[in-house]
Structures are given as C-alpha cells and as structure tokens.
C-alpha cells in the first residue's frame, strides 16, 4: 500500500527518463491541465462578470482584446518552453552548472523584455484596436472599453511574463505541481477581486482588468520566491543575474522560434477578428458570439496543450540522456492520450453547446451566433491533436524552426488568403469566415506529419549537454 501511494504521488522534480511512459506523461500533465484550467479562469471570469452587467459593448470589448493578450501569452509560453527544452536536456544529462546558467539568463532576458512590452503595449493600444476592429463606426461602442482594459493590462504585463518563465523553469525539471498551486491561488484572487471591483465598486471593464493584473502579479511573486528558496539546481540568486552569451544564443535558437510562432499565430487572429467584425450582421452580436465561442475554444485546447507540454519535457529529458527510442514512444503515447481527451470534449460540447453559450451571456442573438460556431467548428479539433503533440515533440528535440514555419504558413499566410478569397468572392457570412480556423488546422496537420515522418524523425537535435 505504501509503495502504491508513493508511486502515484506528485513529485516536485520528475525524472521522466525512467518508469512508465503514459504514467509519466499523465502525472506531469494533470497538474499542468488543472493549472491551465485555472489560468483560463482569468479571462472566463472577466467575461462572465461583464456579461452579467447587460452591456453588450463592454462584453464584446473584453472578448475583442483576447487576441492581443494571447500574443503575449503565446510568446512567453513559447519562450519558456524553449528555455524548458534547454533546461530539461541539461537536467537529463545531470549538468547542474549549465542548468543554473540557463535559469539566470532566462530571468534576466525576461526583465528586459518586460520593460519593452509594457512601454510598447501601452502606447500602441489605439493602433492595435484599429487593426482588430477595422475602424468600423458601428463598433464604436466597443472601442473605449477595449482601450481601457488593454492599457491597464499592459501596465501590469510583467506579472504574466515572470510567472510563465518561472513556471517553465520549474516544469523543465518535472515540477508541474507548484506552478499549478500558484495559479489556483491567483485565479481565486482574480475571482474575488472581479466581484468586488465590478459589483461592489462599479468599476466595470477597468475593474476586471485591474483584478487580472493584480492576480497575475501575485502568481509571479509566488513563483519567483520558490525559485529563490528552492534547494534544486534551478535556484535563482539575484546576484548571479546576467546574460550568458552562449546560453542566450541557445534561447534564441530554440526558444524564440517557438515564442515567435505562437505570437505571430495569435497576432493573425486579430485579422480573423477584423473579418468577424465585418461580417453581415450587428458587430456587437457577431463579435459577442465569437467571444463566447472563443472562451469554450480555450477549454477544448487545455488537455492537448497540457499533454503537449508534457511531451516536450519528456522528449527533452530522454534525448538528453541519449534514449531516442523512448523519446519517440513518448510522442505517440502523448498523441493517443490527447486524442482520447479531445474526442470526449467534442462530444460533450456538441450536445450542450446552447447551454454553454448562454452561461457567458444570455442575449439570444449572441447565444445563437456562439451555438452556430460551436456546432460546426468543434469536430475539427481532432486536427489540433496532431499539430500540438508532434510539434511539441520536435521542440523537445531542439527542432523549433520547422514547426514555426509550418504553423505560420498554415495559421497566418494560408488563413489570410482564405479569408480574403471567401469574403471577396464567396460569402461574408459568419460561418464561412469562421471556417478559416479548421482550414488552417487541417493544412498544418498534413504538413506537420509529413515533416515528422520524412525529415524530423531521421535526426534529433540536442543541445550540447556535456559541455562544461
């Protein structure tokens, strides 16, 4: 009994080079899934609270700024996953000295980028909104609310950045549990502050933005405190903070392509949203329906994203040890697990789509648009299992450039061509425009599999873990 209990307990530092493959992936992914679930509560609670005020313009505004925020989240998730690949490979090779150098370089880089993103984001907010809303005069009710939210968010964006890089460092050595706990505390803080600021102090959109910023700064603080106090090789000492040239080069080669790919893909969603604003109908209703669909969409992605991150760490650690066969087996195990989880969610959402849509906003026009999108787009999420898991495996092997170009080509270039052709020559209705998503997923699925089996599986790329 005692042995069984120990076997299935969460470990802070998980060595994924030994033991059952599926159990390793699940033990790593489960707290990560729960953490991502709580992270989504930030935007979900913001949207729900504003939806209860009855202000359709404010509701659409909170949803309209999601692509901008996802650019930031995507970039730092990609960057932190790249840093995690480097750390996991050094960790798998038992090279603790280089692990510490990666940690301090990554945190120093994050501090510099925090200043840049805060400054640029705050002052570029008006231009970003013009891009997303196409300067549509009918969307004027959305502008002031969206601008207020974004400016407040950018002033506190450092919290998002330091949490993601710190959590990525901990996950690289197998610790996905403490980042999850910090997100739970942070999400609960966000919920309480949302209710106080909006319903108690009547602060509206400014209230939900301020609540999110405070909660993210809280999770970042907890993460950095753990890194400063841990006894493991990822311990952070402020006096050792510096940019190591050789490590920085590896971060750029592995982390930046992943971050850039996720950021550009999210940025392209701004163009998709601009087409959504321009479809036939009332912008507040179509964009409101798109907002509701996007919230459900984020939850569909959670299992596959969590399993994919587990696959990145699994592949990185096993390649660091030199066990390529086990790394490949982990990729296919992760794909099978993600497929089971995604199909289950697809069935549930197809059945309960109208009820899920009405949870966020009870306006019948918004519910109708959201239900239409959920019914027709949800089945195609199976493609995302391939895209996420196999790309994550390639990143774990140090191959980040090819997945970057494949995803940018599919989600940015091809999607924009699709949108222009469909809106100009075929139909400017909601559903044909929204199908730019499944079309991009399908193309990415085909290209990713071709690359993995024809090129990516022939040779792995591992950082030089044996260097001093």
Q: How is this structure best described in words?
A:
The structure is a single chain. This protein is mainly alpha-helical. The protein has one domain (19-455). Helix content is 81%, strand content 0%. It has helices spanning 2-7, 21-51, 56-64, 66-92, 96-133, 143-155, 157-172, 177-200, 204-229, 245-277, 283-321, 324-360, 364-377, 382-396, 401-426, 430-434, 436-456. The longest helix has 39 residues, at 283-321. The two termini are 43 Å apart. Mean pLDDT is 77; it is low at 1-12 and 459-468.
Short description:
It is built from 17 helices and no strands. It has helices spanning 2-7, 21-51, 56-64, 66-92, 96-133, 143-155, 157-172, 177-200, 204-229, 245-277, 283-321, 324-360, 364-377, 382-396, 401-426, 430-434, 436-456.
Could you spell the SSE succession in H and E letters? HHHHHHHHHHHHHHHHH
List segments where confidence is low: pLDDT < 50 over at least 5 consecutive residues.
1-12, 459-468
Shape, please? globular
Mean pLDDT: 77
Q: How many DSSP helices? A: 17
Write the layout of secondary structure elements.
Layout: H1 2-7, H2 21-51, H3 56-64, H4 66-92, H5 96-133, H6 143-155, H7 157-172, H8 177-200, H9 204-229, H10 245-277, H11 283-321, H12 324-360, H13 364-377, H14 382-396, H15 401-426, H16 430-434, H17 436-456
Helix pairs in contact: 2-3, 2-8, 2-9, 2-11, 2-12, 3-6, 3-11, 4-5, 4-7, 4-10, 4-11, 5-6, 5-7, 5-10, 6-9, 7-9, 8-9, 10-15, 11-12, 11-13, 11-14, 12-13, 12-14, 14-17, 15-17
